[in-house]
């Protein structure tokens, strides 16, 4: 039975110059199999994303969903769980008709991820859907499990002859974290690529699905005015912040092994850096864009053990007031050992050693339990060489700063200096601003909505390639190793604050952290 998930009113998708027009292609008929189907990610992100895609008419006419997880339950139980998750986490209140259509064909396969019978059952269901359809259907396997299962699942898919078809596409979507070190990432790449071709593999970094991150490319490459300034001659420094007011949100066993550097810098923040620093790609194809990002990562020298203390700061939060409540310190959180040295805050000073950027510091900082949630990129231009007029009565004159606000107040602002009205020549900074909310008056889709459809279409532009992942690890690995080996240099900051005072030491030449 064909499942028409799209609403009849759905508009055809707009042409998107950033993906070379690929977005105009409809999503082909697909069966999506989610491994880890009862986990947090599936409930909070994947199922609501599927619902919202269906609501927007963006799923293919023939779409099937199969959930795989350990817990014993039947199809009906799983459908009920899906409905609950969608009702709770969807960005819009679900419409009963759409919900019914999305859920009526959902199947569930219980079992261990290394159990062959699970794959035999999957085979049966997948073949059954194709017989009903009378045509081959593409297959996308989404690995939303604990990372220790990624390689075993891929290998089982290979053994069960589910990894390749001659008459349809098979794709595998792999969640983060992709390894916890360079060695592990290489090994995982090796095991995945022993079964799948790189063109079938979609490694998720959900920041790439964010509208504002994609807008970085539009901003840089569709506006002529910034390119002449976008280099070491005019830019003084770049500051990338990913601050959160939340703590570890019950994820103690994951977080205490990961820490801030692995959790956010190794992936999301290095991706943001790449978007700022990359050369314009010749074409907006997956290979064109990813080739340029890899070149940026390769131009960042790998930190040396002797150099790491001067280019990095790590810290842990102590008790304080964050997100509107009194909160415990990190080592008092449930499940965290009292002597943990895992960092909940990390800041780095990186350089991109190429002709465009040599000598320009890129400051990256991220942390849990900071003053508020804020992700932004601030590009500070060099100050004017000489201010010709008197500054009496002037207020805080600063170099021009361009702030690309990723979340929550999505937009772009440029600080300029203007004359204060009056009889004196006094000046102060003013802001020119573009805000998504007021310019577009529409809600942006969640990152996962974009990423799921791109993966089903086979467009890998917004996914991380094997060499890109390894290049990211090459930068972070030496720091991870040094930090794990000693408690020395681990600072503290109060929950709800701006972070550790030691972060100031990373900055040079009068550079300043922006307020969080
Ligand atoms: C995830 C991290 O990748 O990103 C989380 O594991 C973090 O610790 C989250 O909270 C932040 O994502 P976003 O989209 O809320 O900025």
Shape: globular
Write down the secondary-structure element order: EHEHHEHEHEHEHEHHHEEEEEEEEEHHHE
The side-by-side strand order for the widest beta sheet comes to: 16-15-14-13-7-12-11-8-17
The CATH topology of the largest domain is what? Dihydrodipicolinate Reductase, domain 2
| Major beta sheet summary | 9 strands, mixed
| DSSP helix fraction | 25-40%
Total beta strand runs? 17
| CATH architecture annotation name of the largest domain | 2-Layer Sandwich
Question: What structural keywords apply?
Answer:
17 strands, Rossmann fold, 516 residues, globular, disordered N terminus, Dihydrodipicolinate Reductase, domain 2, binds 6-O-phosphono-beta-D-glucopyranose, 9-stranded mixed β-sheet
Q: Which helices and strands occur, and which strands form pairs?
A:
Elements: E1 30-35, H1 40-55, E2 63-69, H2 75-89, H3 96-103, E3 107-110, H4 116-133, E4 138-143, H5 150-159, E5 170-174, H6 182-193, E6 201-203, H7 211-221, E7 235-243, H8 252-277, H9 286-298, H10 308-311, E8 312-318, E9 320-322, E10 325-327, E11 345-351, E12 361-367, E13 374-381, E14 401-407, E15 411-419, E16 427-435, H11 436-440, H12 447-457, H13 466-485, E17 490-494
Parallel strand pairs: 1-2, 1-4, 2-3, 4-5, 5-6, 7-12, 8-17
Antiparallel strand pairs: 7-13, 8-11, 9-10, 11-12, 13-14, 14-15, 15-16
Residues 244, 263, 375 line the site of 6-O-phosphono-beta-D-glucopyranose (BG6).
Describe the protein in words.
This protein is α/β, with parallel strands linked by helices and 516 residues long. It has 2 domains: 26-175, Rossmann fold; 209-506, 2-Layer Sandwich (Dihydrodipicolinate Reductase, domain 2). 33% of the residues lie in helices and 20% in strands. The chain contains 13 helices and 17 strands. It has helices at 40-55, 75-89, 96-103, 116-133, 150-159, 182-193, 211-221, 252-277, 286-298, 308-311, 436-440, 447-457, 466-485, and strands spanning 30-35, 63-69, 107-110, 138-143, 170-174, 201-203, 235-243, 312-318, 320-322, 325-327, 345-351, 361-367, 374-381, 401-407, 411-419, 427-435, 490-494. A 9-stranded mixed beta sheet has the order 16-15-14-13-7-12-11-8-17. A 6-stranded parallel beta sheet has the order 3-2-1-4-5-6, with helices on both faces. 6-O-phosphono-beta-D-glucopyranose is lined by residues 244, 263, 375.
